[in-house]
Amino acid sequence: MQLLDFSDPGLSLRLAEQADDAFFQQLFAANHPYLEHCGLPEPMVRQLLQQQYQLQLQSYLQQTPKPDTYLLLNCTEPVGRLMLARHVEYLHLTDLAFLPSHCGRGFGSKLIQALQQYARRQQLALSLLVDQQNSGAYQFYLRHDFKSVAVTTSHYQLCWRS
Among positive and negative, which fits the CA dihedral 144, 112, 160, 119? Predict the structure, then answer.
């Protein structure tokens, strides 16, 4: 289902397939480089990254059962992942991640703006959680008119309404 309209013809998304899981694991590893620098042997680092990826996925599925998972593409190149769950009154952005080499190019802003346009048309709010240690993501969402509506011991709950 193509629910988003991008102003950038090079940016697109499609529902993820089983074969995309290998890319999603690479995406996770690329966004968690600290394990590569902890002095452990490479096979152990790969195993830890795979376990951490599986734990993150399980956590997301506990937070939001049955989110739609999308592969984000720049032209035909996989560059990220979007996990999105539709509820009666809102869309919950479970995960948005890009390869570090594709950050800072405006893809995240274009994606959020497209989500906001879709939510506005559907009369839905957008919600998400941001880890309190991820100040860059927190500031990104604030710049896109999300408001902090709750704080837990580990996360900010943010919401956007048109």
Answer: positive
